[in-house]
């Protein structure tokens, strides 16, 4: 079959990890006789350098004309990069938020899974994780909340004041809740909805709507958890979670925390989906300016994101399984990038890891 994939290398380690994921996709094409046509799209700093803005209409059009988008990461070092001298709405991150909104990617899925082979890289004791291991998914609302509320900085009586607003309507909550329950039905049938209902109105509405949606899923156990407790529970007893359903900002923070239970932020893939088969696939981590250009970045999060792309947007389950099995094999064979390195393993760089996984497909 023929498919169109838009590639967004982005900034920092972005181009390095995307090129490894592409290597793996090329191998999938060869083995399963598909043709992927790639078009490169500029986003973030890479777009600012060429067009003066972090996202162009042309970039959105190219993404929309594709079956799916594979992205690296965007952004730079806020202290040293000239991009951060621009006003906030022209900075790299604004481009990422704008493309999420333009493509209506309200559902951000971030699976967090601890491979047996990475137990040594996980900073939490084996006894705490327990027999059944750590295998969960964060379902994060991605186009609402604080990220998209009105924001401004004003001056009142000579005192500067910055305002960010957090709002959700019932429909926004309902559609992401439905996603989470649908996913839970295919897993261990447990949803933990995370909010701050002891303080926020938006969280109280969140709880009410989630309760309503839960009525359509009698087999799924629903529990509510306050976000501060959830942050603690992820370290205290991470294996209790199956599906975490939460709003945009909480999901951002909790997913970085959950990533460490998998051994490294370099392992956490993600899919951002709308109501159709279309999606944007990117690792959960950032552009890691501290290790950019050094062949040190772990490409596995991006490669696993490419597997999600095969599964969700192209319906290529067997191919997705093959990529995931290839990652498993390379870890079993003892190869590690620096972030997941432990004693007795073989340390490799970004490119070597990509080569090994592609060869194992
Ligand atoms: P980051 O995720 O880029 O890096 C945090 C730490 O994790 C760094 O020490 C980095 O070296 C390490 N790390 C990240 N990915 C890694 C990988 N694949 N392999 C090995 N180590 C890895 O977060 P940050 O430093 O807070 O942000 C840097 C830039 O990235 C900022 O401009 C931020 O806005 C942007 N960012 C972009 C995205 C995205 O594109 N989706 C996500 C998060 C942050
Ligand atoms: C992520 C990132 C983004 C977010 C930033 C770069 C805007 O941290 O994808 O997790 O907060 O959503
Ligand atoms: Mn984040």
From TrEMBL:
UniProt binding sites for NAD(+): 286-298
Highest taxon listed in the record's lineage: Bacteria
E.C. code: 1.1.1.85
Occurrences of domain Isopropylmalate dehydrogenase-like (ranges): 4-357
GO biological-process terms attached to the record: L-leucine biosynthetic process
Binding annotation for Mg(2+): 228, 252, 256
Record-annotated site: Important for catalysis: 147, 196
Entry keywords, A to Z: Amino-acid biosynthesis, Branched-chain amino acid biosynthesis, Cytoplasm, Leucine biosynthesis, Magnesium, Manganese, Metal-binding, NAD, Oxidoreductase
Molecular function GO labels: 3-isopropylmalate dehydrogenase activity; magnesium ion binding; NAD binding
Catalytically driven reaction(s): (2R,3S)-3-isopropylmalate + NAD(+) = 4-methyl-2-oxopentanoate + CO2 + NADH
Gene Ontology CC terms: cytosol
Keyword NAD in annotation: yes
Pfam families listed in its UniProt record: Iso_dh
Keyword NAD: yes
Recorded metabolic or biological pathway in which this protein acts: Amino-acid biosynthesis; L-leucine biosynthesis; L-leucine from 3-methyl-2-oxobutanoate: step 3/4
Note on cofactor: Binds 1 Mg(2+) or Mn(2+) ion per subunit.
Assembly mode: Homodimer.
Similarity section: Belongs to the isocitrate and isopropylmalate dehydrogenases family. LeuB type 1 subfamily.
HAMAP family: LeuB_type1
Described purpose of this protein according to its UniProt entry: Catalyzes the oxidation of 3-carboxy-2-hydroxy-4-methylpentanoate (3-isopropylmalate) to 3-carboxy-4-methyl-2-oxopentanoate. The product decarboxylates to 4-methyl-2 oxopentanoate.
Name this protein carries in UniProt: 3-isopropylmalate dehydrogenase
Organism listed in the record: Blautia obeum ATCC 29174
């Amino acid at each position: 079959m023929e498919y169109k994939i838009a590639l967004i290398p982005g900034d920092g380690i972005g181009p390095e990890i995307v090129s490894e994921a592409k290597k793996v996709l090329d191998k999938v094409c060869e083995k399963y006789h598909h043709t992927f046509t790639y078009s490169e799209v500029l986003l973030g700093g890479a777009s600012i350098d060429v067009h003066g803005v972090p996202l162009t209409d042309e970039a959105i059009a190219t993404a929309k004309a594709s079956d799916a988008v594979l992205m690296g990461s965007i952004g730079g070092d806020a202290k040293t990069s000239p991009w951060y001298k621009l006003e906030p709405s022209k900075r790299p991150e604004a481009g990422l938020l704008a493309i999420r909104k333009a493509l209506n990617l309200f559902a951000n899925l971030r699976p967090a899974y601890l491979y047996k082979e990475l137990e040594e890289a996980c900073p939490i004791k084996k006894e705490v994780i327990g027999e059944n291991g750590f295998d969960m998914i964060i379902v994060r609302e991605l186009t609402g909340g604080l990220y998209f509320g009105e924001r401004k900085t004003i001056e009142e009586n000579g005192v500067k004041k910055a305002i960010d607003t957090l709002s959700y309507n019932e429909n926004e909550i309902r559609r992401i809740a439905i996603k989470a329950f649908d996913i839970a039905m295919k897993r261990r049938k447990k949803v933990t909805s995370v909010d701050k209902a002891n303080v926020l109105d938006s969280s109280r509405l969140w709880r009410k709507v989630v309760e309503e949606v839960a009525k359509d899923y009698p087999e799924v156990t629903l529990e509510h958890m306050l976000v501060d407790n959830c942050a603690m529970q992820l370290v205290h007893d991470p294996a209790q979670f199956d599906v975490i359903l939460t709003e945009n900002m909480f999901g951002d923070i909790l997913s970085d925390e959950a990533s460490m239970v998998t051994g490294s932020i370099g392992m956490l893939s993600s899919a951002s989906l709308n109501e159709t088969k279309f999606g944007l696939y990117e690792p959960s981590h950032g552009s890691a300016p501290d290790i950019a250009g050094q062949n040190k970045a772990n490409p596995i999060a991006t490669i696993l994101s490419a597997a999600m792309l095969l599964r969700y947007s192209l319906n290529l389950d067997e191919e997705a399984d093959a990529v995931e099995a290839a990652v498993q094999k390379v870890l079993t064979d003892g190869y590690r990038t620096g972030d997941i390195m432990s004693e007795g393993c073989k340390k490799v760089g970004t490119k070597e890891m990509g080569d090994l996984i592609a060869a194992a497909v």
